[in-house]
Amino acid sequence: MEIVREDRHAALADQLCFALYAASKTVGNAYRTLLEPLGLTYPQYLVMLGVWAQDGLTVAEVSAAVGLETSTLSPLLKRLEQAGFLTRRRDTADERVVRLHLTAAGAELERSVAPVRERVENATGLTAAEFAQLRGALLRLQRTVSGADLS
Q1: 3-class DSSP state for residue 88?
Q2: 22-49: per-residue pLDDT in tens?
Q3: What is the CATH number of the domain that holds 58?
């Protein structure tokens, strides 16, 4: 289904890109505010979510999952390692591959961070069903647009 608009330049408030940008910025700021006292930045939190879900992920896997280039990810990983939350180790089968492993402090951090997600989700004012529907729609939007031929 193709959406056709009669007006060529809709108002800013009518733009999907702006609604997504504004919502993302607002939610990201809520996370930043709650994560700061725990010593985490929002991008570090995203990386840690990956490591908490699956210990031993490669840097390339985390890079793809969070949408950050490895050049941006490397200093972030270094800071997480210096903070004692994870370790970076070369893969024994392929030394070009670096794997991320959770430390005891990183596992403890997961317990400390758990209420952050709940607080942000509650702040949305959405019901559990609305929240799940919105998340599903956004994931579908991401997949569809990334696969679209925009040339």
Answers
A1: strand
A2: 999 999 999 999 999 999 999 999 999 9
A3: 1.10.10.10
**CA angle 136-137-140, nearest 5°?**
85
Return the DSSP state at 101: E
Chain-centroid distance of CA 33 in Å reads 16
Please give the sequence-ordered ranges of beta strands (E in DSSP) within 4-146, or none if there are none. 86-90, 98-102
Name the pTM for this structure.
0.84
Give the total number of structural domains in the chain. 1
Sign of CA dihedral 52, 136, 10, 145: positive
Extract the tokens encoding 112.
Answer: 């400390």
pLDDT tens, residue by residue, 71-90: 899 999 999 999 999 999 99
